[in-house]
Amino acid sequence: MPDVRLSSPQGKWILLTTVLGSSMVLLDSTVVNVALPRIGRDFDADLAALQWTVNAYMVTLAGLILLGGALGDRFGRRKVFVVGVLWFAGASLLCGLAPTPGVLVAARALQGVGGALLTPGSLALIQASFHPDDRGRAVGLWSGFGGIGAAVGPFVGGWLVDGPGWRWVFLLNVPLALLCAPVAVRHVPESAGGGAGDRFDVLGAALGALALALVTYALIEADAGSPLVVVCAVAGPAVAVAFVLVEKRRPHPMMPLDIFASRQFSAVNVVTLCVYAAFGGFFFLAALQLQVVVGYSALAAGTALLPTTALMLLLSARSGELGDRIGPRVPLTVGPLLCAAGMLLMLRVGPDASYATEVLPALLVLGFGMVTLVAPLTATVLASVDTARAGLASGVNNAAARAAGLVAVAALPLLAGMGPEAYRLPGAFDDAFRRAMVLCAGVLVLGSALAFATVRRPAPDCRHPECHTHGSVAVPPLEPETEPEPGEERGSGAR
């Protein structure tokens, strides 16, 4: 049984290590959107290159994050976490030194691999290291400090873009990693889970990532109309079907399909796809709208988006308590509607828009909607499966949200009619942004209707979230996997 106390020097070092590791990923996921206009200008790149700058990272992260947790269970959580930190830093260095858009996109894909290794590892180290009496508080501090990292990300990113340059958005990860990795090696105890004899589902992970990559390519490059686009448009769904068949037949799948036997779990994941597709599309386009159309600097655009994250940090725990009292159906119905209203309010944000009267009200309404739905959504996911599989359920839900976001970033510009040079033309981008906000609002209304029709109050003895404070606006929080009792079968090792 782990016995490190949070108040001990070692406990503080472990907390510092895990916060630094997760903050690298959270910072990267929030600051890159702010840097996109400057990246496009410096490389003289089209909109597709900006989409790939975001999505190359998300493809590998979403496709491999479940496998990353299993690798930690097999080879040692500290070892895999340190490898992930160093891998992420190396890929970040490549991003910062990239001479062409193609190199930047390839380096971003490598960054996603590192993120898939360290993201589940940071929470697993807390679960495996701290005494049970301190574990809940450690998880709370980890999620709270991580949320602060997500909150300052756009501000720091904007300051770096306007100051030393966008490359420092990526180079900043290198000193963080050089601090994090040695501390982990020196102060964090090694641990490993069960299932040492299980085989890894590498094929399943590869098929999942490949399906996402093919679909993403077909959507981003659709305007080109080349034969390769057609091939990818057909091959993507076919590979997705192959992924399902492989997962169904393998003895130790990355994503056991029987977890979807719970109708509530399946329904909540569909709601997740709807709401996080809208969120992914919104935060990709809003950072561009504020700079390209409204005329903000990168720093001003990053700072302008802070209210949503600040509201999540301040109110997510209270939202979870409210969901416990009244049940998840109302929050998961009302929350997406509030988010939809916030996105429709963004229709007023055009050239020379006032922040106080036009931008801020939209972001506040959106933020309150996110506060309303995110914590109850996580609680419903955990409550809809057996306690021993809660960690797996959280990992599947987290990966689904990431996949929804990357598909939205690929599809939304196409559906809204954004041409390759749209982000250089304020008038054209503004028109397409308005169409995109209407589409995002429609998807959120669909998610609300699904929640109202399918979500029911969970059993009173179900698993409750441990990450009460949450600041990331891109994905729902990961939850630690419950250690199985002696003789009990382990869920999957995935998170």
TrEMBL record:
Stretches that traverse the bilayer: 12-36, 48-68, 80-99, 105-126, 138-160, 166-188, 200-220, 226-246, 267-288, 294-317, 329-347, 359-383, 395-416, 436-455
Keyword Transmembrane helix listed: yes
Keywords of the record: Antibiotic resistance, Cell membrane, Membrane, Transmembrane, Transmembrane helix, Transport
Pfam families referenced in this protein's UniProt entry, alphabetically: MFS_1
BP terms from Gene Ontology: response to antibiotic
One GO term describing the cellular component: plasma membrane
Listed name of the protein: Major facilitator transporter
